[in-house]
Amino acid sequence: MKVLSELDLDPLESSQKSNSIVKSNIELSLLLRVSVVEVRQCLTLFREMEKEYKAHVILLAYHGQGHINPMIQFSKRLAAKGIKITITSTLSNTISMIKSASTSIKFESIYNDHTEGGVAGPGGFKGFLDRFQSTGSINLRKLIKKYQVSEEMPVKCLVYDANIPWASNVATEMGILRAAFFTQSCAFVASCYPMNCELSGVAPSIPLLLMPGLPELRIPNLPSLGPEMGHFPPIIRFILSQFDNSEKADWVLFNSFNKLEEEVINWMSRLWPLRTIGPTLPSIYLDNRVKDDNDYSFNIHTPNTGDCMKWLDSKAMGSVVYVSFGSAASLSAEQTAEVAKALVHSDKSFLWVVKPSEESELPTNFTQENSEQGLVVKWCPQLAVLAHNAVGCFVSHCGWNSTMEAISLGVPVVAMPQFLDQMTNAHFVEHIWQMGVEPKTDDKGFARSDEISSCIREIMHGQRGVEIKKNAVRWRAFAKEAIDEGGSSDKCIDEIVARLLVLGH
Q: Is the pLDDT of residue 327 over 90?
């Protein structure tokens, strides 16, 4: 059953309308396309569960699937330990999360991107960020205050995506704890520290961490983030804004675990009150201790689950190459053609996720001409695919969520990073964790088909692949150990809960 609350599905305040919470069950049922009876049942169940909560946390989620899902998964862990959870974001994100939620989490919107403009609105992405800060900060204060003055349990902590640094100031003003939530690896954020010191004009507070061999960052062209100013491109300045106020946070949270990035974590713990709380995968794929936690709660596309799983069921163990470049990265037509050629020449069955926006980049008639060897889909249930015993390797852009999923499910990786933190993640996959290989790129930055197919064959059948597979299995065990009862990440979550419980009494 979907557990819903009396949600504020409109923003808490707009320029034209007064602040009002949607209390009509009929309005709510029409918006979510569920029956009025279902809504009333869910509200009743939610109120019954409220009596058992011990403290209250609001989580402020950032835009995008790769940011939203880790935060929701962390909130499920807190809820399972007796913490009342309210997740807030834009209206469109809120509606999407409600429709797929299956826990006792409450959702409220603090910004109506339908009327005030989302990413595609005036000013592009930068315009959206400015509006979200201006309106969202006001409404976030009102949301926290609403609980502080009502009979419901007052908020004790605000967990905010580190890409929303202004939220820290709101928490300070409201007199509650604050936790910055990073959705990149510790290694990537540590590699950005020297740049942040240069940009802010402040000397490093601790000796810099040396990470020899890290590749240069590949910077995407994102003009919607604003004009070029000074030494750092807009996207780098935006990433570095995550450092704002982090030193003031009560906790700095990372979707990682101690054994995975031990040296980096030890170094960063001298800088911030760092706590690892990952992997943030649904519990069924790890320790299975969180009830009904079977999947992520947010998808940008509807996964083609039935066709994918039926097709995989027909394949031999370890025989399939799974290919996906995530929700944000997109390949050029030239790189797409090289991947297509590599898959065909690998002589391996392949499952390739090609988003609707990328279909035009495929070679003409590729899907039809290679239907016996491979299945091309618009979106798939990635966790279920990676967990399937037919999958032998994962050709990935190495976004942090995909990387953590491969680690947690023990799947070797052919690393094809496209930009930013993906470069760092791919380096660690090959050289530090030794559970994958990265095809060499040419002067144009493209991995050619012979390189890609060679890496696939090396993992699937090569001598190096034997060791890579052993390491992948080893990291899978470490991931499960970290989040299971008494593991390093579980202890960090318990520590947070313990402090919240003290404040709750």
A: no
Q: Three-state DSSP class for 134?
A: helix
Of the residues 8, 113, 161, 293, only one is catalytic, namely: 161
Alpha carbons 428 and 412: distance in angstroms, whole number:
13
- Dump pLDDT digits (tens) for 197-215: 999 999 999 999 999 899 9
For residue 204, whether the previous peptide bond is cis, meaning omega lies within 30 degrees of 0, is no
For residue 99, what pLDDT is reported?
66
Active site includes 307? no
Question: Are the C-beta atoms of 275 and 496 separated by less than 8 Å?
Answer: yes
Dist CA 97 CA 101 (whole Å):
6
SS3 labels along 71-111: HHHHHHHHHHCCEEEEEEEEHHHHHHHHHHCCCCCEEEEEE
Q: pLDDT tens digits for 340-399?
A: 999 999 999 999 999 988 899 999 999 999 999 999 999 999 999 999 999 999 999 999
- Report which of residues 230 and 474 the model is more confident about: 474
CA distance 57 to 76: 12
Please indicate, yes or no, whether residues 256 and 325 belong to a single structural domain of this protein. no
Active-site residue identified among 8, 56, 63, 67: 67
Is residue 421 among the annotated active site residues? Answer: no
Query: What range defines the domain where residue 380 resides?
Result: 305-482
Q: What is the CATH number of the domain that holds 409?
A: 3.40.50.2000
Give the span between the Cα atoms of 447 and 438, in whole angstroms.
9
* 353 and 249 fall within a common domain: no
pTM of the model: 0.88
CA distance 270 to 265: 9
